[in-house]
Design brief:
360 residues, 4-stranded parallel β-sheet, binds 1,3-dihydroxyacetonephosphate, binds iron/sulfur cluster
Length: 360
């Protein structure tokens, strides 16, 4: 295997976000719970929430017959649901994926400025340049990318399928041009024996986990197991007892016998981990203060833009206000992005069945 970091790529030097839940917002969200529930039922909408959203939003999804899951599951559930209105509580690429897979549905987002640092690290114009520089490589994009980048890619993966796709492409003799997460790119190369040209992007949340401080946490809690999302730095991954996507980490806590876990992923996941394991303890893994994006804990500032008040606005507004919440993807982009997204769903399905054809 080898990993080659791509150079001279224009990326944001810093990210201008500072949103954290305030006590006032959290109080407001609890107060609006019944109203939000009514709005969802009245509009016959399906609320699909990522594990990283605030517990109140996840509870709202549970109480309205909605869905909580990882990025792959969110895409599939939106497509398979008979509902005509889907509310995606997460970040923009998740809303775009839902719209690409279900163009006939209305896909609403509480806050359209909910970005993702990975998505922001990869512009279509830069990818075009890198594709020209590596014309023989297979372009594999993480789901955390814009519709435009997806439309330029051969494959899309989520963290639950990335290593398996690396192995699959290695067996076909293909080299990978990977966008945009540097850490996941390295993880794919390490675990699949593939040659990976990796983009230097990063998730500001997972990139903040700090190996030395986490090693100390492990010493202090010798019986605890460390769970790590592969968007984290390699030295943090190296300490892990289990590496996986959000769903895979959650599933692990349900079958594993440990009583305490140190968790290196976004803190919204604690809601489902605690709910599934009321007798176990979950501790947040330590983060470092990074100059360009100081975080004092692993809370995604863009996921934190989702709120119940905004879910109500998305559903109840009309005209120009409604447009501010409605995901649209240009037809040409959508048609091209659908191919690798559909391939992702077929790949994930074949993987689950243990029956991978070599011509997907
Ligand atoms: P998964 O939910 O697929 O593990 O991805 C995490 C993520 O990056 C969401 O922002
Ligand atoms: Fe993007 Fe990281 Fe936030 Fe997920 S946690 S949305 S990868 S910035």
């Amino acid at each position: 295997m080898s990993v080659i970091m791509l150079k001279d790529i224009a990326m944001p030097k810093e990210f201008e976000v500072s949103h954290k839940f305030t006590a006032q917002e959290l109080e407001e969200d609890s107060r609006l719970f019944d109203q939000a529930k009514e709005a969802i039922l009245k509009h016959d909408a399906l609320l699909i929430a990522h594990y990283y959203t605030h517990p109140t939003i996840q509870r709202l999804a549970e109480e309205t017959g909605g869905f909580i899951g990882d990025s792959l599951e969110m895409a599939r559930v939106g497509m398979e649901s008979p509902k005509k209105t889907i509310v995606v509580a997460g970040v923009r690429f998740m809303g775009e994926s839902a719209k690409i897979l279900s163009p006939e549905k209305t896909v609403l987002m509480p806050d359209m400025s909910a970005e993702c640092s990975l998505d922001l690290c990869c512009k279509g114009s830069e990818l075009k340049r890198m594709k020209e520089a590596h014309p023989n490589a297979t372009v594999v994009a993480y789901a955390n990318t814009s519709a435009e980048v997806k439309a330029m890619s051969d494959w899309i993966v989520t963290s639950s399928t990335a290593v398996e796709l690396g192995k699959y492409l290695k067996a076909r003799g293909e080299e990978i041009l990977w966008v945009p997460d540097r850490h996941l790119g390295g993880y794919i190369a390490d675990n699949s024996e593939s040659t990976v040209y990796t983009w230097p992007g990063r998730c500001i949340v997972h990139d903040s986990f700090e190996a030395a401080a986490i090693a100390q946490q492990k010493k202090d809690m010798p019986d605890a197991k460390l769970l790590v999302h592969p968007e984290s730095p390699a030295d943090v991954v190296a300490l892990a007892d289990k590496v996986g996507s959000t769903s895979q980490l959650l599933a692990f806590t349900k079958t594993d016998s440990a009583k305490t876990y140190i968790v290196a992923t976004e803190r919204g996941i604690f809601y489902k981990m605690k709910q599934a394991n009321p007798d176990k303890n979950f501790v947040e893994a330590a983060v470092a203060q990074r100059a360009e994006m100081p975080l004092d804990n692993a809370e995604c500032p863009w996921m934190a833009l989702n709120s119940l008040g905004k879910i109500i606005s998305a559903l109840e507004s009309t005209g120009a206000e409604r447009d501010k919440h409605t995901i649209e993807v240009a037809d040409d982009v959508r048609v091209n992005a659908l191919k690798p997204l559909d391939r992702l769903l077929r790949f994930a399905e074949a993987l689950k069945k243990g029956d991978l054809p070599n011509d997907l």
